[in-house]
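quick one: 6-O-phosphoryl inosine monophosphate bound model?
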Amino acid sequence: MAVDVLLGLQWGDEGKGKIVDVFTPKYDLIARFQGGPNAGHTLVFDGQKHVLHTIPSGIFNDGCLNLIGNGVVIDPVTLKKEIDQLIALNIPIKERLFVSKKAHIILPTHRLLDAASEKAKGKTKIGSTLKGIGPTYMDKTGRNGLRVGDLLLDDFEKHYNFLLKKHAEILRFYDFEYDLSEMESQFMEGVALIRKLNIVDSEYFINDAIKEGKKILAEGAQGTMLDIDFGSYPFVTSSNTICAGVCTGLGIAPQHIGEVFGIAKAYCTRVGNGPFPTELDDSNGEKLRKIGHEFGATTGRPRRCGWIDIPALKYSIMVNGVTQLILTKVDVLDEFEEIQACTHYKTDGIESDVFPFNIQKQEVIPIYEKIKGWHCSTQEHIPEALNDYIEYLEDKLDVPITYISVGPDRKQMICRENVGSA
Ligand code: GDP
Ligand code: IMO
Ligand code: MG
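yep, here:
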């Protein structure tokens, strides 16, 4: 059975958590393949809101297993908090959650290094979530990292102290004060909890599931514009958020990839620093933020808002091989009489829909087309003007838009046509 993939096409927060939750009943296994607690995936059902950071969004469904893959970085402190909250809701974690032996561990000093590095960058800081993501992936590629499997070794503390000493030396170069004691005791509590989880050789676990014909969905974190290779570098995260990351982050071969669901908001947001060509600094931007409740699920920071960016979406669809597009937060545009879509960028006087090397606002000027708003509720049916907008996007992007999301609740979803396996 193929592994379907669901990932973000913009700068994260496209509504991936909600859509995974809606799709979960159709799958046997949901697997996270990259990122870590920088992610904040929101699920809303039965009048309750749940935010997941490291745990896949299938965890609320009985009959569905969840895997944290080798490509994910795990902070034992955050993971323990998440698990404690789920246990309080009677979710049987031991039955539903599996963790890769090869996933890397975020140490308290990785978080300190993240903060120290951001502080030292001053105005040029990335706007990181300060969860220690960058330093942990640096230790992974630098071949210094600790993995979940290492937590099971008798001499784990020796390895931990060795890396801690290294980090303390680096921290000495920064003008940065810290107190590790409280952070370390929380870390050790988290480590003790992870040791009791189902720790698996995840590449065998998932390939066996494929052989057994299980239906698997890989859940992306962040978005394509934050990909370490193809995003708006250096204002990106430190992992491959794109479809290729599924192969390395789970240990599956490319021929096992099935449908690729690309998630995009009907407009665009970004949290953190870095270029954002269609950003609106006016009342429309404010209106999108207010109606869309655009505040980060992990950090609470206000999200920057702007119109949909078609050249960036075309690029994301290309690098991911998207087969179906899911448009979210469509209801947020209900109150607009007119909306806009960026169709091209103007660079040095030349208009193009190619996503350029540099998307700083002084380098690219977005060219917009005005689109008539539907200016009515989308809860009961798809208004004609919205259908026109969807068909306009399908025409520009050359991918079918199979679902639209019209509210945060799992029930607020409209299926346009039954395409593909979900
Ligand atoms: P993720 O990181 O991609 O899972 O997205 P987040 O959870 O960070 O941000 C999406 C936010 O929008 C959350 O607050 C969701 O509850 C909410 N949301 C998701 N889909 C919709 C939708 O269609 N309409 C509205 N109004 N809110 C939505
Ligand atoms: P989900 O999965 C939105 C952004 C940060 C910052 C940059 C680098 O909820 O869509 P990092 O902590 O990774 O070093 O931060 O990436 N960022 C996100 N923005 N949604 C996310 O995840 C994000 N994860 C990281 O704001 O600009
Ligand atoms: Mg989010």
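Residues 418-422 have pLDDT under 50 and may be disordered.
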